Amino acid sequence: MAKILIIDDERAIRRALREILEFENFQVDEAENGAEGLDKAKNALYDIIFCDIKMPQMDGMEVLDGLMQAKVDTPVIMISGHGNIETAVEAIKKGAFDFIEKPLDLNRILVTIRNAKERVVLVEETQALKTTVRRFKGSSIIGETDGIIKIKEMIEKVAPSDARVLITGGNGTGKELVARSLHDFSNRKKMPFVEVNCAAIPGELIESELFGHEKGAFTSAVKDKKGKFELASGGTLFLDEIGDMSLSAQAKVLRALQENVIQRVGAERDIKVDARVVAATNKDLRKEIEAGRFREDLYHRLAVILIHVPALNDRRDDIPLLAEHFLTMVCTEHGIPRKAFTEDALEALKQTNWTGNIRELRNIVERLVILCSDKITGNDVAIFGNPQVTA
């Protein structure tokens, strides 16, 4: 349910607009002057703001300036009974999403709201896409060994469904890439892919990160905040390293999975969410359950489909493909003419004990590209790669 703020000094206008919006199932908040509206917009989370232009003390243009300075990215729709083309153009230039003249027309209001919501989704998708391109440029699930072929086949079967997936495997094996592939081949691919690294967030903040919080819920909660479950609604929520999540957070995640509802920290009302959950861990969750560190009921909720990503040492025949892929990627990123591996270099890489898996291989290839000549040899791997050759 979208939350809308109305800033207008005329009570009749606020009431009329509220009735229209509430009839369309929007949640509505009001401010009777510009200063109050600006304060509310800075300290609470709104999906759309309606702001009158002609108001005493602080007019709508000043409110708009304040919102832009505070970097409030909520779409602002300006309204006025004294509007003209110059005023509308000025408002748009200052950052307003649209301009509506009074008397307010129901259809125009609803169309503008729909367009504003679509723009927000488009901006979020664009930001997510830019992040993906930066982090995964040129990457895909690369490999031709039996284990990787089975993973690709599993992704093809599972991705179109909404079934929850638990991905297991060691650090650096590529679990996140599997999760992204599940999203990219799903019916949710146009919606956000939201990642949470459960191991990187302090235990006392994980619930706020996942479920959001209300203003004043704790000392640093200066405004309402959406959690990852809300941000991923309609898309995919990737819970990485879920084995490191606290038991209290596990209980709330379980409820979210069972009922598709969450509660922000410090709030009492339920919020419906629709996120497909994909989880990953480098731990043996069965052992964690036996040790009392992981809930068995949550495990069964998450592990509808299990995908295990093999260690690089268990798929050595894929190393030449991966090395060539990373070679191209690194040369492109650094603006270096493409270099080449000799056969003995690729063989030396195959014989390396990859304790850090694919992540380590990528780092070694980057080091070799930077430090070696156009032809990277087996001797270069021995010197610069610091391989731990297996017996």
Task: Please give the structural blueprint.
Layout: E1 3-7, H1 11-23, E2 27-31, H2 34-43, E3 48-52, H3 60-69, E4 76-80, H4 85-94, E5 98-101, H5 106-136, H6 146-158, E6 165-168, H7 175-184, E7 193-197, H8 206-211, E8 212-213, E9 225-226, H9 228-231, E10 236-240, H10 247-259, E11 261-262, E12 271-272, E13 276-281, H11 285-290, H12 296-302, E14 305-308, H13 319-334, E15 340-341, H14 343-350, H15 357-371, E16 375-376, H16 378-384
Parallel strand pairs: 1-2, 1-3, 3-4, 4-5, 6-13, 6-14, 7-10, 10-13, 15-16
Antiparallel strand pairs: 8-9, 11-12
Helix pairs in contact: 2-3, 13-15, 14-16
Total E-strand runs: 16
Give the strand order of the largest sheet, numbering strands 1, 2, ... along the chain: 2-1-3-4-5
**CATH-assigned homologous superfamily of the largest domain:** P-loop containing nucleotide triphosphate hydrolases
Parts with pLDDT < 50 across at least 5 consecutive residues: 134-139, 387-391
Q: What is the overall number of helices?
A: 16
Query: What percent of residues are in strands?
Result: 15-25%
What's the CATH class label of the largest domain?
Alpha Beta
Shape: elongated
Helix content: 40-55%
Average pLDDT score: 89
The multimeric state of the shown protein is: single chain
How many domains? 3
Kindly report the CATH topology of the largest domain: Rossmann fold
Write the CATH architecture name of the largest domain. Answer: 3-Layer(aba) Sandwich
Main sheet attributes: strand count, strand direction, barrel closure? 5 strands, parallel
First-residue to last-residue Cα separation = 61 Å
